[in-house]
Design goal:
four-stranded antiparallel sheet; 3 domains; transmembrane helix; 25% strand; membrane; eight-stranded antiparallel sheet; alpha+beta; transmembrane
C-alpha cells in the first residue's frame, strides 16, 4: 500500500487548496501529479479564453517537508534522538564550541518543535470530535483523555524547564527570543485546540465531563503567557483593536514556526532557453530552405519573369510553414524538455538542492481524455452523454524529483514531502448566471415560490503516481460554486 495522500479543501471563497503528500525513500524519488479539471462548456474555460500563462498565474505551488509525527511521550524520552527536545539539550551543552552553528540548530529545532506540537494537538482534537460525532460512550474515552492530558503536562513541564538554561550569559539574546516565541506559539495553539474540544464537549450530553479539565488547562496557558509578559497576553480581547492584535500575533508565530519546513524555490529559465533553441533551429532550417529555393529559382528561371517571381513567393510561403511546423513538431517530440514551468527545490536549512519539478498545462475536451480518467469522473453514469455539450478539461501535469539520499543526510526524521497547490477561481465564475432562481411549487392547495441557489459543478480528478514502481492513486473531488464563490468541496468515493 503506497503512502500518497490528497486533500482538497476551500481556501477562502475564491480559492481551492490541494495538500499532497509524497513519501520520501533513500533513493531518487520521482512522482507525478495529473490534475484534470472538468468545467461546463458554458463557462468557456478553454485555451482561447484562459490559456497556459493565465492558468499558471492563478496557480501557486509550495513544497515543504512534512511535519514529523512525534507523539508527546516520545518527545520527552531521553533516548529519542529525533525529538527536538533531545536535540536542543544536546546543542545547549555544546553552545561554547561553535556558537554560530549551535545557535542556528537550536532555533531550527525550536521552530520544528512548535510545528510538531501543532500537528499533535490537531490530531487529538480531530480524534475527540470524531468520537463525539459517533456518540461513543464517555467511559471508552476517559482513559485516552486522562493519558492525553498527562502526556501534555509532562511535555510542557520538560519544555518549560529549559527556560532556565536560556537565562545564561553565554546564550545570545536571539536564542532567548526564539525560545519565548516557540513557547508562546505552543501555548496559543494548545489554548485554541482545547477551546475547540471544549465547544464540542459542552454541547454533548456524554462528553461534558471533560469540560472542567479543558477549561482549567486553557486558563493555565493564559496565566503562563501573562506571567512571562508575552505580547499575546497583553491584549484585551474585549477591544476590537486588541482582538486584531492577538490574531495577528498568532499568524506571525505560525509563519515563523512553519516556514522552517518550506523548501526554497528557484525558478528555472531552462524552458525559455529550450523554446528559443527550438525556435532558432526551426528558423535556421526554414531559412536554409529559402536560400536553396532562391538559388534553384535563379538557376532554372530567367530573372524578373513571372515564373521566377511565383517560385520565390511560393518558396517564402513554404519557408514560414516549415518554420511553424518544425517548431510545433519539435515540442511534440521533446515534450518533457519544454516545460511550462520549472523550478529547483533547495532545503532552507542548508541551502542545498534536493530536487526539482516540471509543470505542463494543456487544454482538451472530455472526449479526448483517457477512458479511465473519464470513468473516475463518472462520465459513464451520465445519460445522453453523446449528445450533450462536451465539458472542457484543463490538464495540469506536474512531475517532481526528490533526492532521497541528500534529504536523509540532512534530516534524519523526515519520511515525506508535502506539496500545497492553490488555484484561484475567479476565471471559473466570471460567466456564471445569477446565484439563485425562483422555484414555484404547490403546498396545501396554494402556489408558493422560493428562491433556490443556482450552482455549478467543477469536477477535479487527481492522479498521484510513483514513476519508479508504477503505483498510483486516483481521487475525485467536486467543487460546488455559484457566482458568489466556492460553496463547498465534496469528496466522491471511487466505485
Amino acid at each position: 500500500m503506497n503512502e500518497f495522500k490528497c486533500l482538497v479543501k476551500e481556501h477562502g471563497r475564491f480559492q481551492i487548496e490541494l495538500k499532497l503528500r509524497y513519501p520520501v525513500k533513500n533513493i531518487m524519488n520521482r512522482y507525478s501529479l495529473q490534475m484534470f479539471i472538468y468545467t461546463p462548456q458554458v463557462l468557456a474555460v478553454d485555451k482561447r479564453n484562459y490559456g497556459t500563462t493565465a492558468f499558471l498565474k492563478d496557480l501557486k505551488v509550495m513544497t515543504r517537508i512534512s511535519t514529523p509525527d512525534i507523539i508527546f511521550t516520545n518527545m520527552v524520552r531521553e533516548d529519542c534522538e529525533i525529538s527536538p527536545l533531545f536535540r536542543i539539550k544536546a546543542e545547549l551543552k555544546n553552545i561554547l564550541l561553535d556558537r554560530k552553528k549551535q545557535s542556528y540548530n537550536i532555533i531550527y529545532e525550536l521552530r520544528t518543535l512548535a510545528s510538531i506540537v501543532r500537528v499533535q494537538m490537531r490530531k487529538a482534537r480531530v480524534f475527540l470530535i470524531k468520537r463525539i460525532e459517533k456518540q461513543e460512550e464517555p467511559e471508552l474515552l476517559e482513559n485516552w483523555f486522562e493519558e492525553f492530558c498527562k502526556d501534555l503536562d509532562v511535555f510542557l513541564n520538560n519544555f518549560r524547564d529549559l527556560k532556565k538554561d536560556f537565562v545564561n550569559p553565554d546564550i545570545d539574546q536571539v536564542l532567548r527570543t526564539a525560545y519565548d516565541w516557540a513557547d508562546e506559539s505552543i501555548s496559543l495553539n494548545i489554548q485554541r485546540e482545547l477551546g475547540i474540544m471544549h465547544k464540542y464537549c459542552r454541547v454533548s450530553e456524554n462528553m461534558n465531563i471533560f469540560c472542567r479539565r479543558l477549561n482549567d488547562t486553557v486558563l493555565n496557558e493564559m496565566k503562563h503567557r501573562k506571567h512571562h509578559n508575552y505580547p499575546s497576553a497583553e491584549a484585551d480581547i474585549k477591544k476590537r483593536v486588541s482582538g486584531e492584535a492577538i490574531v495577528y500575533r498568532q499568524s506571525v508565530l505560525k509563519k515563523w514556526s512553519q516556514s522552517v519546513m518550506y523548501l526554497n524555490k528557484e525558478q528555472s529559465f531552462q524552458p525559455e532557453r529550450i523554446t528559443q533553441i527550438i525556435a532558432g533551429t526551426a528558423a535556421a532550417v526554414a531559412m536554409s530552405f529559402a536560400v536553396a529555393a532562391t538559388i534553384l529559382t535563379n538557376r532554372y528561371f530567367p530573372q524578373n519573369t513571372v515564373f521566377w517571381g511565383l517560385a520565390l513567393v511560393f518558396a517564402y510561403i513554404l519557408k514560414d510553414r516549415i518554420k511553424e511546423t518544425l517548431r510545433s513538431g519539435l515540442k511534440v517530440i521533446f515534450p518533457m524538455a519544454v516545460a511550462d514551468r520549472m523550478s529547483t527545490l533547495k532545503d532552507a536549512a542548508v541551502q542545498k538542492r534536493i530536487g526539482h519539478y516540471k509543470s505542463f498545462v494543456s487544454f482538451h475536451t472530455a472526449e479526448n481524455v483517457p477512458y479511465d480518467i473519464n470513468k473516475a469522473r463518472g462520465m459513464e453514469r451520465k445519460p445522453f452523454q453523446d449528445i450533450l455539450p462536451s465539458e472542457n478539461v484543463i490538464l495540469y501535469n506536474h512531475i517532481i524529483r526528490l533526492d532521497g539520499k541528500k534529504i536523509y543526510r540532512i534530516h534524519k526524521r523526515i519520511d515525506s514531502i508535502t506539496e500545497i497547490i492553490r488555484l484561484e477561481l475567479h476565471k471559473f465564475i466570471q460567466l456564471m448566471d445569477d446565484p439563485d432562481q425562483l422555484y414555484y411549487y404547490s403546498e396545501n392547495n396554494n402556489l408558493q415560490k422560493k428562491r433556490l441557489r443556482r450552482v455549478y459543478h467543477i469536477n477535479l480528478v487527481t492522479v498521484l503516481a510513483d514513476k519508479r514502481s508504477g503505483e498510483k492513486n486516483t481521487y475525485h473531488h467536486r467543487l460546488i460554486l455559484n457566482r458568489d464563490g466556492l460553496l463547498r468541496v465534496e469528496h466522491i468515493k471511487q466505485k
